[in-house]
């Protein structure tokens, strides 16, 4: 059977971080939460019948901060998914968590409900930096949460870290990586701060009130993290992700390999059956639409072959293993070298300058991947493949 990943969006948080550009709300009541969950469950029930010939192998519960709501509600949603989707093998079920919202009691419920992977938003292990970016937890709260999660039986834990943050020096970043590695989480994501429109940091940046790292420092910190993680035995398998071998994120890899996934909730995106669609980002519009028996998709797009090929290359090059040129031919019925024959000279130049690596200088078979040097200019390289 075809495999399908499910994403569930829980858009609530205790306090919105200063850098956060995701669709989330920090001013909702317990009643708002329940109204949303009722709509979310109804959306699952409305869509499930379309996917009877699929096997659900991953579920990712993201946000927002899903762990802010009662854990029993998360359990309820997972039960509905299991009951409505006939073939739910649940190889990997992840929930995103904030250290300030996790308790041993919640962890026990999550484990009982089938969740077997935690993704904890740590961002920094320096209290001054955490305060500067608007996080609700401190270093000790995270350390206690991590200990509780291990004791609760979670054997697969990711932690998110960020670099180029306000008040963050090279020394603080190096210490953060080393301290994180010492805890031996199974997976570490490391992201550069992005200034997103509509965030508090964006307004500060426009006014010249935000002191952040320049591009050179940003790239230096990225390479520092990659080197330290590799030295510690982590597999740097995607631009911003590293894992103990065998603990790579199965669900997120679906996005990078263009496998199918179905999203539920406000602003959730889906890619199934050659179509892309996503839900409205407006709370009232989402709830009202579902209550009336209408699915809340804003856009339903049938992707062209050119669209799919560009996305395959663009997302695939995020993986350090790159793209398989043999798989490219199998998927799209044309050799990569033929489809992109006008890029041959460009590709050879990038190989010669050490930005791209390949098994075949004619780009017909084997793999095509970015080097660590190439990752630094990945956006400009990837954009070359647009038609």
Structure at a glance:
This protein has 387 residues and is α/β, with parallel strands linked by helices. The chain has helices spanning 30-47, 71-84, 104-113, 127-132, 139-151, 170-183, 200-206, 215-231, 250-256, 283-291, 305-316, 325-332, 336-339, 344-352, 372-375, 378-383; strands at residues 2-10, 54-63, 88-97, 117-123, 157-163, 187-192, 235-238, 241-243, 261-264, 269-272, 275-279, 297-302, 323-324, 356-358, 367-370.
Note the quaternary state here.
single chain
Structural class: alpha/beta
Instruction: Determine the strand fraction and express it as a percent band.
Output: 15-25%
Q: Kindly, what is the distance between the CA atoms of the first and last residues, rounded to a whole number of angstroms?
A: 33 Å
Quote the average pLDDT: 95
- Poorly predicted runs of 5 or more residues: none
What does this structure look like?
- The chain is 41% helix and 22% strand.
- It has helices at residues 30-47, 71-84, 104-113, 127-132, 139-151, 170-183, 200-206, 215-231, 250-256, 283-291, 305-316, 325-332, 336-339, 344-352, 372-375, 378-383, and strands spanning 2-10, 54-63, 88-97, 117-123, 157-163, 187-192, 235-238, 241-243, 261-264, 269-272, 275-279, 297-302, 323-324, 356-358, 367-370.
- The chain is an alpha/beta fold and 387 residues long.
- It is built from 16 helices and 15 strands.
